Amino acid sequence: MSNHQALVEALLMKSILGQELVDTKFHVFSGRSAHLRKVIRLQDLSANDIVLTARSVFFAELLSRTGSPDATFVDFDGGSEFEDGIALDDYGYTSDSDLEDEEEEKASQTPPSDVSSVLKGNISESDDDDDDDDEDDDDLLIVADTRSESDALTSPLQAETPIAPTPIQHKPQAVNYRNILVRDTAFRTLKALLLYLYTDKISFFPIKSQGLPRTDVEIPNRSTSWPCSPKSMYCLASKVRLDSLRDQAFHAIRSSLDAKNILQELSSSFTSRYPAILQMNVDVLLQHIASVPVIQNIPALLRRITDSQLPHGADIMISLYQKFLLQHHPTALALANAPIAPIAPIAPIAPIEPQKTTSGLKKKGKKGKK
């Protein structure tokens, strides 16, 4: 039996016994307000500790409090101090594309004047379905009216006392679950992670620099798939030490890079945080070094580096130079990186003592003989 199947069976057994399936609730921010410089809209996600602890050492340590405390996963008492959000700088990942921008949402909302036209369009697209519904409603009316007209006229009018159903007594169950506030991860990212822990399935949106609207992306099955940003998931998977998920996010990022967006991604704050991502970006840049978009825009990147506008600018230049040597002068690079044998220390030279003369001793010896 696979580990995944064993987890599913454990949850099914708990549900059959009527046991609570929610042990932990994560409270996560889902939106970003640019003008307030805050992350906003706290939402809840529920999880079962059996799944969390079995799939992730990080969550096992977090829930058992055996590992070192994490400042971004903290116990939450459900208070209102976070209802207005937290500062974007305290969130840590200011460019998180899994946060829904408040301004973009307002612009994309349908105005009230258009609601009727939208509804009308939906109705017109399902006229055939409405006809079927009408026929079903007529059948329901005929079945419901079980008395004939003669019965209704001849039967005396009697006030029938309705029989009140006996309510089923349920014993209130105390629901005890742990509340955890997540300060550096978006709702969409953590939701996708929890689904991965339950099902081993993950799907990703295109990265924003590709310029593809997320609404135009075809998701294989939206009912069983909650896509997220691969860059956001790379951050979270690295944090919770899920190497397989981190690698899937890495490959999704790599497949999204081309000549048009490589310079933008190379200069991003996300790239500056992870050396493996930086090295991968430099590899892609060298592959497209002679492309028109790179030739036209790389001078601007170099100016930003020389002006100290990129904290990882020196790392970019060093990596570029090393990869250039590896590609065109591998022998020289190998010699430069070869370990140098330690030179044995030279023993200090002892000072030369002045020689003592023996002439005086000889004279004394001669006098002694006399």
Question: Would you spell out the secondary-structure blueprint of this structure?
Answer:
Layout (H helix, E strand, L loop, with lengths): L2 H14 L7 E10 L4 E10 L1 H7 L1 H8 L8 E3 L10 E2 H4 L8 E2 H7 L6 H10 L2 H18 L4 H6 L23 E9 H13 L30 H10 L3 H13 L6 H5 L2 H5 L1 H13 L4 H15 L6 H16 L1 H8 L21 H11 L1
Helix pairs in contact: 2-3, 9-10, 10-11, 14-16, 16-17
Largest sheet: 6 strands, mixed
- Spans of at least 5 consecutive residues whose pLDDT stays below 50 are 112-155
Distance linking N and C termini: 115 Å
Beta-strand residue fraction: 5-15%
Q: What is the H/E order?
A: HEEHHEEHEHHHHEHHHHHHHHHH
Over the alpha carbons, how many angstroms does the gyration radius reach?
37 Å
Calculate the mean pLDDT score and round it.
Answer: 79
Task: Give the overall shape.
Answer: extended
Class by alpha and beta content: alpha/beta
What's the total helix number? 18
Count the beta strands.
Answer: 6
Helix content: 40-55%
Describe the protein.
The structure is a single chain. The protein is an alpha/beta fold and 370 residues long. The chain contains 18 helices and six strands. The chain has helices spanning 3-16, 49-55, 57-64, 88-91, 102-108, 115-124, 127-144, 149-154, 187-199, 230-239, 243-255, 262-266, 269-273, 275-287, 292-306, 313-328, 330-337, 359-369; strands spanning 24-33, 38-47, 73-75, 86-87, 100-101, 178-186. Strands 1, 2, 3, 4, 5 and 6 form a six-stranded mixed β-sheet that branches. A hairpin with a 4-residue loop joins strand 1 and strand 2 (38-47). Helix 14 (275-287) crosses helix 16 (313-328). It starts with a helix and ends with a helix.
